[in-house]
Amino acid sequence: MTVRQQWGIVLGVVALLAGGLFVATHTMRDELFPVSVGEKAPDFKASPLLEPIYPAAPSDSFTSSVVADGARAKSLASYRGQVVLLNIWATWCAPCRAEMPSIEKLHREFGPRGLKVVAVSVDDPGSQQAVREFARNLGLTFEILQDPTHQIQHAYQTTGVPETFVLGKDGVIRKKIIGATDWSSEGTRALVAQLLAEDVAR
């Protein structure tokens, strides 16, 4: 075998490997490149379990109403033009439980001003009552959806729970947090206030 033939084989192998890498990269694009800040939030569908009831007066209590099983699923389009805090969580997740009070605090401050807190439970099918009891025990009054098929985790390429996305009125992800955090912090409150004040053409 001549040197030229050997080089031809080497170049052929390199070309095959490069082609395979190109195909794999594009085939697995979602897995390799999860959604991040600055991108449009992917759409989703999840079943509603609890819906908030905002107080009619400042002295009234925050509460929520139970949504009957089988209600029409909600999607990202349900919140078009609104600031959304999208929290992906589960009842068995200790860090999720730890951050829920701060999410509730943020909801009570900014919910009446337009913030939509949407907590999507990824608990197993048939756990609707357990999710509702979890919310009642912690005094949660924001909207809770359930996605037992984990469709939303796939769409957002989450690495676990909790994972949270703050979306602007234009549907763009403005903040992404992996793990638990204090959602009532000064920085988060300032961001939410800024997003609520933005005037975005629909």
Strand content: 15-25%
Query: In angstroms, what separates the terminal alpha carbons?
Result: 67 Å
What form results from the Cα inertia axes?
globular
What average pLDDT do the residues reach? 86
Number of domains: 2
| Count of strand segments | 8
Under CATH at level 1, the class of the largest domain stands as Alpha Beta
Radius of gyration, whole Å? 22 Å
Structural class: alpha+beta
**Low-confidence runs:** 20-32
Order of helices and strands: HHEEEEHEHEHEEH
Please identify the oligomeric state: single chain
The helical percent reads 25-40%
Largest sheet: 8 strands, mixed
Specify the CATH architecture of the largest domain: 3-Layer(aba) Sandwich
Alpha plus pi helix count: 6
What is the CATH superfamily label of the largest domain?
Answer: Glutaredoxin
What does this structure look like?
The protein has 202 residues and is α+β, with helices and mostly antiparallel strands. It folds into 2 domains: 3-32; 45-197, Glutaredoxin, CATH 3.40.30.10. Helix content is 37%, strand content 21%. The protein contains 6 helices and 8 strands, in the order H-H-E-E-E-E-H-E-H-E-H-E-E-H. Strands 1, 2, 3, 4, 5, 6, 7 and 8 form an 8-stranded mixed beta sheet that branches. Strand 5, helix 4 and strand 6 (143-146) form a beta-alpha-beta unit. The protein is globular, with a radius of gyration of 22 Å. The relative contact order is 0.19.
